Amino acid sequence: MTVNNKSALIGAIKAGQNWLKWDDITYRSVLYRITGKTSSKQCSLEQLQNLREYIHEQGFPRKTTRKHGRKPNVANRRQSVLSKIEALLADAGRPWEYAESVSKRMFQQKIIEWLDDEQLTKLLQSLIIDARRRNK
């Protein structure tokens, strides 16, 4: 296999490390136990495939499917509001695209990360009103 495929495997392994929340010490100990090497760049293609398979066995999904879109990435101080928005969307069975479309209608801004604190709060309030309407 070519270098590009090896790079893709290393990328998938690093994604698995991040998803499993392994620190560098844990990752390197697993790498050494599976391959006998201390760096993924030293590994053969077969060793990388074995390591990737082990990471899948530990719980890293083979393919990530996102049915409800991408959760926006906001500052820590805004995470609580965003979590409430996420919960309201989940209760309604709606994707993140719904919140983006509401944001676009209300503020002419589709990208939720770009909303200021006041706008984000108003978006949350509009979703609360929507939830109350659905529950009647």
Explain the overall architecture:
The chain has 136 residues and is mainly alpha-helical. Helices cover 64% and strands 0% of the residues. The protein contains six helices and no strands. The protein has helices at residues 3-19, 24-35, 45-57, 79-92, 96-107, 117-135. Helix 1 (3-19) runs parallel beside helix 3 (45-57), helix 2 (24-35) crosses helix 3 and helix 5 (96-107) packs across helix 6. The protein is elongated, with a radius of gyration of 21 Å. The N and C termini lie far apart (60 Å). The mean pLDDT is 86.
Summed up:
With 136 residues, the chain is mostly helical. Helix content is 64%, strand content 0%.
Lay out the secondary structure:
Elements: H1 3-19, H2 24-35, H3 45-57, H4 79-92, H5 96-107, H6 117-135
Helix pairs in contact: 1-3, 2-3, 4-6, 5-6
Order of SSEs: HHHHHH
The number of helical elements comes to 6
Largest sheet: none
**Computed Rg:** 21 Å
Overall, the morphology is: elongated
Unreliable stretches: none
Give the overall average pLDDT. Answer: 86
As a percent range, the share of strand residues is: under 5%
Strand elements, count:
0
Helix coverage percent of residues? Answer: 55-70%
Based on helices, strands and strand pairing, what is the structural class? mainly alpha
Question: Span from first to last CA?
Answer: 60 Å
Looking at this protein, list some descriptive labels:
mainly alpha
